[in-house]
Write a structure and sequence with these properties.
Blueprint lengths: L7 H30 L4 H28 L7 H26 L10
Helix pairs in contact: 1-2, 1-3, 2-3
């Protein structure tokens, strides 16, 4: 059997973008709860949430550009090429998920 070894660091990239998504979810909801609990003005709270969301989108966008521009390591063969494409599409999915899931709640009433 001629197995091609892919560096373990490459496999971690599969979950990196959704890890950023999870951090964004936690930070946004925590910031929202803190802002409501301490009576922040609607404008300040909304802008804080927007800035946090944009910061996380920038990080995922950086990951997207890193893998969109990069090429798979030729030494890893078809396995490396498949992993590169899987990572790229996982990052794209995380970006879209961040926009579609975490973006619209910013348009709702901030505190009830």
């Amino acid at each position: 059997m001629n197995a091609v070894v892919v560096p373990p660091g490459r496999v971690w990239w599969l979950g990196a973008a959704f890890t950023v998504w999870c951090v964004a979810l936690v930070v946004l909801y925590a910031l929202h709860a803190i802002g409501c609990a301490f009576g922040w003005s609607t404008g300040a709270l909304r802008w804080s949430l927007v800035l946090v969301l944009i910061a996380h989108l920038v990080v995922i966008g950086w990951m997207w550009s890193k893998f969109a521009r990069g090429r798979p390591d030729p030494a890893t063969g078809k396995t490396g090429s498949f992993l590169h494409q899987a990572i790229l599409w996982t990052v794209i999915t995380a970006f879209a998920s961040t926009v579609l899931v975490l973006g619209p709640p910013l348009l709702l009433t901030t505190c009830i």
